[in-house]
């Protein structure tokens, strides 16, 4: 190299270095944001910092924090949007950053349009089957990291609606049917997200339990049932995570829209639960300015039909007081400081893809539930199985995901290509997406000496022939679920039932793998040797499944939701459907989104859903009604077995439950030990409720003494008369075991 070349190379390198420093500074700080304000002092409390900013703000700046700026998914106009579902603008003069929001229930969504990758984790209900707060914390932390990687600072995930209606098309986004389990898990999920300096959001507040007519349905429910079930799940999640935001839901509750319901937003959430963050409306769930503001809504998304000029005028006319306005703004600002958006500006980078995949697999291994294992057909011994046929469910290429706003885009596009334009649904919400985690490939890797083949199952005769010729047949059945519609039934589609029955008739060693978002009924269950619930198992789902089938992983997942025998056994055998005038669906490509959103804002005629099963949600219903179920809440098999003994209960104020669990089998395993309690008859409660649990890892032959602390709050009931919780004095039965219907230990204690 000549010296002239060397000089120009050095100049170039110096120039490049300066540019990259400048770029990283502006990337990190956001446009025009400097750090030279009194509120830049991170040692001050978030409240003090918010107050300081508030004093400097104009009315327009205040209003700008209280609304979104249009549904921006497909906008080509330049804006501050990062391409997510919504955002609030930055205020550079005051150093206040934009809040960039992305849906992120089981991974960061809508990466495809911007060419971004994110990890698709197992569905939320799947991960809930781990009953593992630590796993769920890490699940949230991964999402928090990947949100930041992609330039987002707020998650829209954290669904904690209880499964009053298991046919709800969003059951896969929630955490099952028990308030303690669901609340604990979502709380840890949000805590994990927020550990990464993003805002966590708990949703959909409240009683938003069906998709059919969700913008019009009026959920009728008594206070006690709400407080002890649906709202308790939120309360527990809030206590654990102190979330930056709570999203109010589309539906009405006892007459008022959830986003203008002062009982829900002010009396319960802000006063009783002492929620310090901001309430954001579900997308298009705002229906007024003054009424919603008075009731406690802080921010409208994604538009400004009401919380833009409308709210400004209401403040100017005095209809909304300055104090009320300032409270909304304070909550948004406080959250920006408290959750790290101000002190730790987002810096984009490539997510750690490999780490994400490894973690997704570990979650799937804890989520998959072994439901049936006749004659120990599983695990399959790789040394003894010569041939294995996988049938149906696109098991050659991938695993299914849950759809709607939670949809994580599969890397490389859907492993099962969508139908060509014009054939199949035009609404992008209503398209199945399959992740490229191929069961065929994963099973070949686990069973290298066997002949592993695949048939589609489209022709049952062909499937039957293939099953006859194989040592073991594994049928992959699936039910796709998405925001926007409910399942008509928990039954599998008829052709899949027929496929299972035909294959089972051809091969006694038939195992069914289910990829579902909700429970499934199984009229065919006696005909097959094994059943595995894999849920929507995520980007490494097939690998996790194959490890469980081969026994390199011992299954440990347990159901967070009851599998009933039939729809007829549900509290509402028939789904409550809206009349046509109360139903509007999100428009497909080319449809008029603006027109749709403004119709939503105006509101649709209400129709009624009566939650007259009251306190009897999930297992409490089947217990109270003495209905036998297919697989109970808390159930899941292992390749080993566990024995329970030696129960003692001590302490009156915070009872402590101690017992011993022993691994009776010939291999190591993890048992989820569950503690339930029956309240005194005078409490008027369903037969029992979950009050605690512990995940216990046990080596072969090992036994451990476990202590589970029970919070007195979890033994209390809500008294509508005094609007408070009380412990009913009397005799309490503590029940311990491996599922809600297998509780070998019992001890009665008297509490005052
Ligand atoms: C869903 C929310 C979601 C929002 C933004 C709504 O349709 O109900 O859960 O966060 O859209 O995408």
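-> sequence recovered:
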């Amino acid at each position: 190299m000549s010296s002239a070349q060397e000089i120009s190379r050095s100049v170039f390198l110096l120039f490049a270095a300066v540019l990259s420093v400048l770029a990283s500074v502006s990337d990190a700080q956001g446009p025009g944001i400097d750090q030279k304000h009194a509120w830049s002092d991170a040692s001050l409390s978030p409240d003090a910092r918010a107050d300081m900013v508030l004093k400097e703000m104009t009315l327009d700046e205040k209003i700008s924090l209280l609304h979104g700026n249009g549904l921006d998914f497909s906008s080509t106009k330049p804006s501050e949007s990062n391409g997510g579902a919504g955002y609030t603008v930055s205020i550079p003069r005051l150093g206040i950053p934009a809040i960039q929001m992305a849906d992120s229930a089981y991974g960061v969504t809508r990466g495809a349009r911007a060419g971004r990758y994110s990890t698709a984790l197992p569905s939320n209900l799947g991960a809930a089957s781990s009953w593992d707060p630590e796993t769920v914390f890490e699940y949230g932390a991964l999402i928090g990291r990947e949100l930041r990687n992609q330039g987002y600072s707020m998650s829209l995930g954290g669904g904690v609606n209880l499964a009053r209606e298991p046919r709800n098309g969003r059951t896969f986004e929630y955490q099952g049917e028990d308030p303690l389990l669901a609340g604990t898990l979502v709380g840890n999920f949000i805590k994990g997200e927020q550990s990464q300096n993003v805002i966590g959001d708990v949703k959909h507040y409240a009683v938003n339990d069906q998709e059919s007519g969700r913008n019009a349905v009026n959920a009728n429910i008594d206070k006690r049932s709400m407080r002890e079930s649906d709202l308790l799940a939120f309360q527990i999640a809030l206590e654990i995570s102190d979330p930056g935001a709570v999203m109010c839901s589309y539906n009405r509750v006892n007459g008022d829209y959830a986003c203008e319901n002062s009982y829900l937003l002010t009396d319960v959430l802000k006063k009783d639960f002492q929620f310090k963050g901001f309430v954001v409306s579900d997308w298009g769930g705002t229906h007024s300015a003054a009424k919603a503001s008075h009731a406690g809504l802080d921010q409208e998304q994604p538009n400004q039909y009401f919380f833009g000029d409308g709210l400004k005028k209401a403040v100017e006319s005095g209809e909304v007081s300055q104090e009320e306005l300032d409270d909304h703004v304070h909550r948004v600002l406080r959250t920006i400081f408290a959750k790290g958006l101000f002190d730790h500006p987002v810096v984009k980078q490539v997510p750690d893809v490999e780490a994400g995949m490894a973690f997704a697999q570990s979650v799937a291994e804890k989520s998959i539930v072994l439901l049936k294992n006749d004659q120990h057909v599983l695990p399959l011994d790789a040394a003894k199985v010569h041939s294995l046929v996988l049938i149906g469910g696109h098991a050659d290429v991938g695993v299914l995901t849950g759809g709607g706003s939670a949809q994580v885009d599969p890397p490389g596009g859907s492993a099962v290509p969508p139908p060509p334009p014009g054939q199949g649904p035009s609404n992008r919400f209503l398209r199945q997406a399959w992740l490229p985690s191929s069961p065929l490939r994963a099973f070949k890797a686990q069973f290298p000496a066997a002949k592993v083949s695949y048939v589609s199952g489209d022709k049952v005769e062909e499937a039957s022939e293939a099953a006859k010729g194989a040592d073991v047949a594994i049928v992959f059945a699936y039910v796709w679920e998405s925001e926007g519609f409910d399942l008509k039934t928990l039954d599998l589609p008829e052709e899949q039932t027929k496929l299972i029955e035909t294959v089972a008739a051809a091969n006694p060693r038939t195992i069914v793998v289910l990829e579902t978002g909700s429970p499934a009924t199984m009229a065919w269950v006696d005909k097959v040797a094994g059943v595995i619930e894999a849920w929507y198992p995520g980007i490494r789902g097939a690998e996790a499944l194959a490890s469980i089938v081969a026994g390199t992983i011992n299954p440990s997942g347990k159901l967070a939701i009851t599998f009933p025998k039939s729809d007829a056994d549900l509290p509402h055998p028939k789904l409550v459907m809206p009349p046509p005038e109360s139903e509007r669906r999100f428009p497909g490509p080319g449809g008029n989104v603006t027109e749709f959103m403004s119709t939503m804002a105006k509101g649709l005629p209400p129709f009624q859903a009566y939650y007259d099963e009251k306190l009897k949600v999930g297992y409490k219903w089947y217990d109270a009604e003495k209905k036998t179920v297919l697989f109970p809440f808390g159930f899941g098999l292992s390749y080993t077995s566990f024995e329970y003994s030696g129960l003692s209960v001590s302490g009156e104020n915070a009872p402590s439950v101690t017992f011993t669990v022993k691994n009776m089998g010939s291999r190591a395993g993890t048992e989820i030990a569950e503690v339930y309690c029956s309240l005194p008859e005078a409490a008027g409660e369903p037969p029992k409720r979950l009050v605690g649990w512990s995940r216990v890892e046990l080596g072969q032959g090992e036994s451990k003494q476990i202590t589970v602390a029970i919070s007195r709050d979890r033994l209390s009931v809500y008294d509508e008369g005094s609007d408070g919780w009380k412990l009913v004095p009397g005799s309490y039965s503590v029940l311990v075991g491996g599922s809600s219907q297998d509780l070998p230990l019992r001890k009665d204690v008297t509490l005052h």
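Residues 85, 103, 156, 203, 282-283, 405 surround beta-D-glucopyranose (CB under 6 Å).
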